Amino acid sequence: MKRNFASLIGPGLMYAGAAIGVSHLVQSTRAGADFGFELMWILLAANLLKFPFFEIGSRYVLATGKNLIDAYFDAGKWILILFFIMTLVTMFPIQAALTVVTAGLANNIFDTGLTTTTMSILLVLITMLIIIIGRFKLLDKLIKVVIILLTLSTFVAVISALNIQTVQNFSGNEFDWLNKKHIFFLIAFIGWMPAPIDIVVWTSLWSQSKFGSWKEQPSMKEVLLEFRTSYFGTMIVAASFLALGALVMHSSEEVLSPNGAVFAGQLIGLYTSTIGQWAYPIIAIAALTTMVSTTLTVTDAYPRTLRHSMQLLFNKGFVVSDRKIYIFWIIVLSIGVILLISYSGSSMRVMVDLATSISIVTAPILALLNYKVITSSKVGKKYQPALYLRIWSWIGIIFLSLFTLFYLCWLAI
After folding, report:
1. Rounded CA gap, 126 and 120, in Å?
2. Structurally, what CATH architecture does the domain formed by 5-412 represent?
3. How far is C-alpha 360 from the chain's CA centre?
4. Confidence class of residue 5 from pLDDT cuts 50, 70 and 90?
5. Which residues, other chains included, contact 121 with Cβ-Cβ below 8 Å and sequence gap of 6+?
6. How many other CB atoms sit within 10 Å of the CB of residue 76?
7. How many CB atoms lie within 10 A of CB 148?
8. Distance, CA of 86 to CA of 392 (rounded, Å)
9. To pair with 329 at 20 to 30 A between CA atoms, which of 269, 298, 312, 369?
10. Rounded to 5°, angle at Cα 152 from 148 and 154
11. Residue 365 neighbours by CB under 8 Å, 6+ apart
């Protein structure tokens, strides 16, 4: 049964919706604004080195019908317990940081007059209702529209920025490999570019949900085409944001704020003041859709992950339905984020640093585990990575391991 490409779109774009967020809009733009095009090669290298581990989710689902949470449980209950704990530790600060940045953008664009905290709470409630009422099908459709809109508006913004005169008059900083602040920025930049590796678990869950609705499974070629198009598309979007930062902001004397909400206003203000007020809708759409898509996607991903993990860990210990467990975790996540934002306001730096640290330290472990899963005897040969991807994977594992050691050494200094 042949399908057109549009019908296959889903898991890959859901991945893109989760990946394109703070790492792209904030970190990539900041990299360009602070250091021009110096870190472009690092952005591209980080995406390429991590690629083999992100496509494993779709491969594994197609080969076995199971998701990666099932694979972790089969590999050892303690592995799933550690993953469950890691998810609980990181989900509140990550979701809170995403929400605050999105709320800051919404306030700036629509001039609501609301505080960031109030808008954040409102956003959490709206997102929770969209996910609960619309379920996966609505989310699937929303992400398609949002990502396409984001990509088009970003490309238009980059093309417009190429015409500005300040491009030849860079006066910003150069990256200093002996500067501790620059190194810590680089660590965070690489650690979350394009996204933490545990997102591959989410991809497997979305793939399972998508493929499970079909009577006949898609081919490996179709699945990989859909995911790879989305993956390398997010890399191009990240490079575009870095280019925007370099072209528009690198020569500006304004210091970018580490506060997400303040940064949102600076981002749009600097673009429009340099490119022209006419570009405001383009920049606003690109920025807001980036964060809305990420917020929606992550709100769906964490409850899905925790629901299935609990089902496996506690086996028959639950008498409530899957749907109720899913809604329970959405509510828990929403309440936790509201409390966290209400307590800390718009100061997300400590929480994001904690989440980033956990993601960096666990990255080589998850990469190795996922590689072992996809090359195990439980996966048919035709679904396993080709030789070049296996070599590519080991290069990535070595890179992530050395990067983690480098990060830990810098923490100790």
Report:
1. 10
2. Up-down Bundle (1.20)
3. 14
4. very low
5. 338, 341, 342
6. 11
7. 14
8. 27
9. 369
10. 115
11. none
Phi-psi region of 357 (alpha: psi -120 to 50; beta: other; left: phi over 0): alpha
Whether the bond between 194 and the residue before it is cis, its omega within 30 degrees of 0, is: yes
* CA 347 – CA 328 distance, rounded (Å): 27
Do the beta carbons of residue 259 and residue 43 sit within 8 Å? no
This model's pTM is above 0.90: no
pLDDT in tens, 139-174: 656 666 777 777 787 787 788 777 764 444 445 578
Instruction: Return the sign of the alpha-carbon dihedral for residues 333, 284, 153, 159.
Output: negative
349 CB neighbour count, 10 Å cutoff: 13
At residue 192, the 3 state secondary structure works out as: coil
Cβ atoms within 10 Å of 320's Cβ, excluding its own: 9
Three-state secondary structure call for residue 41: helix
- Tokens representing 243 are 């280019």
- Residue 259, CB-side half-sphere exposure with 13 Å CA sphere: 11
Please give the Cα distance from 46 to 39 (Å, whole number): 11
Max intra-chain CA distance, the chain: 66
Query: Which pair of tokens denotes residue 264?
Result: 């949102």
